[in-house]
Amino acid sequence: MASMSVAVQRPDGSAIRVVVLRGCSGDPLPPDIARTVAPGGQSGPTIIDLSEVTILGPEIDEVVRRVVALVRAQPYCVVAHRRVARTACRRFGVGATAALFATVADALQAHRYACDGYGPGWAPATSAGGSGRTGARAHRGTG
User: Fold this and answer.
1) Which of 126, 102, 123, 127 minimizes the C-alpha distance to 111?
2) Burial class (CB in 10 A: 0-12, 13-18, 19+), 59
3) Strand order, beta sheet including 17-24
4) Residue 1 CB burial class (10 angstroms; 0-12, 13-18, ≥19)
5) Bridge partner list, 76
6) Does residue 69 contact residue 135 with C-beta atoms inside 8 Å?
7) Of 68, 62, 57, whose CA–CA distance to 28 is shortest?
8) Residues forming beta bridges with residue 133, ordered by sequence position
9) Angle between the 83-91 and 59-71 helix axes, to the nearest 10 degrees?
10) Cys-Cys with 99: which of 62, 64, 77, 113 at CB 3.0–4.6 Å?
11) DSSP state letters, 67-112
12) Confidence at residue 134, expressed as pLDDT on a 0 to 100 scale
């Protein structure tokens, strides 16, 4: 079985890491993910980008939890471009522990606004019975 691949980006030289995963949610994470993403044990704000991951089922929640633990991501959020992927993330528990965004740009904007005292930033959805949408797009009424 092939393992997922991982890449790290730092948009505009910011302190925020974007961890881009590629592959299938059922594939194992690469064994050197911690060294690749957090050299020297660095921690910090992290966007976990699942836009290039094929989500097959509930194991996506475990993938996100393992990435967060291995790379010491605090705080963190999750990005998935496709609506069906965000729906799967919510259905399988990711939305209960992380804010979900449609784009990295939306996640960066929410983080900037929260740092300036506006909005919830990367806080997970906390309203029961709502639409389940989180992040910047939820506030604009699109998803």
Assistant:
1) 123
2) middle
3) 5-9, 17-24, 44-54, 73-79, 99-101
4) exposed
5) 46
6) no
7) 62
8) none
9) 90
10) 77
11) HHHHHTEEEEEEE-SSHHHHHHHHHTTHHHHSEEESSHHHHHHHHH
12) 44
Closest CA relative to residue 17, chosen from 93, 92, 53, 70: 70
Q: What is the three-class DSSP state of 39?
A: helix
Structure tokens at 22: 């590629």
Total H helices, total E strands in the chain: 6, 5
Please give the Cα distance from 9 to 26 (Å, whole number).
24
Condensed to tens digits (0 to 9), the pLDDT of residues 65-83 reads 888 887 777 888 999 998 8
Strand 5-9 and strand 17-24: pairing? antiparallel
* DSSP track, 112-125: HHHHTT-S-TTPPP
Token pair for 40: 């020297």
Q: Which tokens in the block code for residue 130?
A: 């709502």
Single pTM value for the model: 0.79
Contact by Cβ (8 Å): 26, 54: no
Residues of the chain with confidence (pLDDT) below 50: 126-143
3-class secondary-structure state, position 21: strand
Q: Which amino acid is it at 133?
A: R
